[in-house]
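Consortium newsletter contribution from the modelling node. Members have asked for a concrete example of what our holo predictions look like. Here is one, prepared for the FE2/S2 (inorganic) cluster complex that several groups have been discussing at recent meetings.
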Amino acid sequence: MITREISFILNGSEMCIDVDVRMSLLDVLRNEGFNSIKQGCGVGECGACTALVDGVPYDTCVYLAVWADGKEIRTVEGESRNGELSKVQRAYIDAGAVQCGYCTPGFIMTTTAFVEKHKGKDIDRELIRKEHAGNLCRCTGYEMIICAVESCMKDS
Amino acid sequence: MFDIKQYEKAESVKDAVRLLSENPNAKLISGGTDVLIRLREGHSEYSELVDIHDLEEIKGVSYTDTGDIEICAATTFTEVVDSEIINDVLPVLALASGTVGGPQVRNVATIGGNLCNGAVSADSLASLCVLDALLITESAEGEREIPIIDFYLGPGQVVLGQTEILKSIRICLDNYAGYGTHYYKYAMRNAMDIATIGCAAAVKMDDGKIETLKISFTVAAPKPIRAKTAEEFAVGLEPTEENIKKIAKQVMNDVTPRDSWRASKDFRLHIIETLAERVIKHAAEDAGGES
Ligand SMILES: Cc1cc2nc3c(=O)[nH]c(=O)nc-3n(C[C@H](O)[C@H](O)[C@H](O)COP(=O)(O)OP(=O)(O)OC[C@H]3O[C@@H](n4cnc5c(N)ncnc54)[C@H](O)[C@@H]3O)c2cc1C
Ligand code: FES
Ligand code: FES
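And here is the predicted structure:
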């Protein structure tokens, strides 16, 4: 077994762990108990495993854990503050954008990065669709998800 | 877990060349969106890796002193799409790069990996062919420059040697200045799908007539191709609807698509002709010609 010591910040806390080089970031995050990260497809198609690395959404199933060294990682577990949901989480609930919920943590992280990247800019539904095309949802038909993203943009 | 048996992180291009020289079984990993999928599928040819992920030395887009554009191999598609230089002078490459996968894939997939992987459906390929891109590599034997059209040997096969690393992609000033361009990816879905056919064109106009046409197709033959018969036929023609239809017919002489589960040969031929018309029309308009 080949291991490397990596350190990173996970949802604001410093972590230093030995990882097996064969592990994906998904494997490491789930092993550490961050179960919001879902393995849907395991091959970069569905986005259920999306986390932010230095503010950018990645599919953690096709991202080697060793690449996380020195990075800042965010999962949905770290998005609420003092028991208050983040604006994006709140918007998903208010818009009825959550059904079974399997895709939701991944979507929330993609939207969180989207809102941060496009804050204050004029955006249309086409761009929202394009920038969420890496997340699949089998339940909602996407309409409510797009409404949720739109409402985040309105009050940002 | 991925079945990785050997793993070395390269600190520089030189270091990567050394690591590849020391282990003849080693392969490069950059963004990993092809390599890790291959490993997931259980292919063992990628079980010994030299990692060049995020290697600063080969990231970024810049102008050279002579006005050429240098796109480093480890630049991600998101960085290409967001690059001011690319949007200013190589908009066709921004357009093509934006059609790759979804956002998460574009955030990590590199333009160099796209070419070196050798897939004939690679989305950066058709645009780089009409821009006559030069690929700059380094290996244990030294540096060399390879014209993109000579880079492919066949499906999944490129000319790179075992210790050879693609460092950058160069677009010379003469090959972009004054051209109008366009790219169209035909796929079954608008996102997260690979091309059934990809088509790019670059057009230079002179006094209302086509002075130069460059048109390239992917998935239309075992290798990316330039439709030379059509390119020669187009010279001196006005880009009228009728002429563009005639040029598109000429493209048929240059393509050899195949049947696959994705699309039949006949359907591909139909798409090729339709895309040729559409893409030439847009490129000519972009170059300032009426059509
Ligand atoms: C869900 C999904 C969707 C996708 N959609 C598309 C799509 O729409 N269009 C498309 O074109 N592709 C698509 N791809 C394929 C892939 O993302 C691209 O081909 C990508 O550009 C590969 O780059 P990479 O950096 O991830 O390559 P890697 O996987 O790291 O490497 C690919 C190959 O290139 C070699 N290599 C990498 N860098 C270098 C270098 N600098 N020098 C020499 N050799 C090198 C590696 O050894 C390997 O053989 C998709 C992939 C996934 C997982
Ligand atoms: S599990 Fe990672 S993209 Fe589907
Ligand atoms: S809510 Fe069920 S998959 Fe999206």
